[in-house]
Amino acid sequence: MTVGPASRPGDEARAARAVSQLTTLLASGDLPPRMRDVCAQVAERLAAPVRMSVVGRPEARPVALANALLGGRVLPEIEGLPPAELRFSEAETWRAITANGAPAEMDARRFALCDPLNLALLQRTAPVPLLRQIALCVVTLEGDAAEERGALSWAVRDADMLLWCSVAPAEEAVLLATVPGALLDHAFLALGRRSQSGSAAARPATDPHADVLASGFVAAFPVAMDGAPDTALPIAAVDGLRAALLEHVSRGRREDLDFALMLLERYMPRQSGPAAAQIAARLGPAPVPDPVDPEHPGGADLYPAGDSQDLGAQARGLGVEAGWPASPPGADPAEPLTGAARIVELIAERACAVEAALPAEGAVPSADVLALCSDTLNEEASIADADAEDAADDLPDLLAEAADLMLLIQMEDSPGAVVDSLALLLQARHECEARLAA
């Protein structure tokens, strides 16, 4: 299994280990059912190149654009070329699927003798470096509106990224609207232009016609289309586009690798101390919590009043009773605390460290806050699981589910991630206090 490269030093080796460990974890049966699909998807993405579809009408020349990105004439730019899939291999191969579904092995010479209208799919491998990172599916959108929609639907069915090639954005808005919204978050626009003078210079990126579609893409790039229709596009004409695509791929791989490491930290035995202790030590002494109002020790005031985005109030709400023994009324003080009581104390102890790590207003989410919350929820789940006395106690399952949700929250990049993580801790405390009060 080949693992696609990542941009940080050592990421390729870490990705390979992560794929191996995730595969072992999936085979073990230890993952909760709700996390199995997530784990499998992350392992699959790390173990294979990113899949990008290059689509466009004939006048936008998607085949020529793909060739320019690859640095040479990998695909023939001929009328009626069937959809083409390109993968990396040290050896060049040609394989076609005929219109009746039969496979046909061939080479470049034999393919040139075929009638492309009798082929349903072309599969190519080539020793092109870009294909190590991005596998391409190149589809020219031809025919009537229904045929275009069908071809586009097929092209994007398994795609991770999309490169939309266009020379007339205003005419394609309806067709673009059929692309899944999630894929548009990873879609780029190659805007083909012919210069007025016939030179190779494309119109500037500020061309007002580009705004019709460009706002729905990660980025838009003008591409010079001067020259005869069968003339290869200059490789340099797509340098900026290629660099942007590779940066997007690298960023996605880093996120997938980071998420894979979170999954392994959550479900594989730990090899080091808890993140909370490491972060708390780096943050320094925690501030002293505000005095507790004896008339309002918690309960209904657990969830701070007012704006739910007041992160400081939420964090302080975790620990308003720091040091509280949390023992049920009448309990023997000499008896060890129950699991629920230990969890409440753990949350209270972490409250000051969480507040100290909160980002400033308007700043990006703090990784320290998310790591503290995740580590705390994992410890809570372990405490509840060890303390469970009968199968009817649902607290271990509730806290395990909260820890799983925290993994997904850690992948967010908005202030909502911090709000949601604090809300999970507040809910965990509320569940434990309800059991202690029962």
Would you kindly provide a written description of the structure presented here, covering whatever features stand out?
- 46% of the residues lie in helices and 13% in strands.
- The chain is of the alpha/beta class.
- A 9-stranded mixed β-sheet has the order 4-3-5-2-6-1-7-8-9, sandwiched between helices.
- Helix 11 (275-283) packs across helix 13 (339-357), helix 13 packs antiparallel against helix 16 and helix 14 runs antiparallel to helix 15.
- The longest helix has 29 residues, at 239-267.
- It is elongated.
- The relative contact order is 0.10.
Which terms summarize this structure?
438 residues, alpha/beta, 16 helices, disordered N terminus
Count of β-strands:
9
The description of the largest β-sheet is:
9 strands, mixed
Number of helices: 16
The residue fraction in helices comes out at: 40-55%
N-end to C-end Cα span:
54 Å
Strand content: 5-15%
- What overall form do the CA principal axes indicate? elongated
| Structural class by sheet pairing and helices | alpha/beta
Indicate the low-confidence ranges by residue numbers: 1-6, 196-210, 270-276, 278-309, 320-330
Strand order of the largest sheet: 4-3-5-2-6-1-7-8-9
Question: What order do the SSEs take from the amino end to the carboxyl end, as H and E?
Answer: HHEHEEEHEHEHEHHEHEHHHHHHH
Gyration radius, in Å: 28 Å
Query: Could you report the average pLDDT, rounded to the nearest whole number?
Result: 76
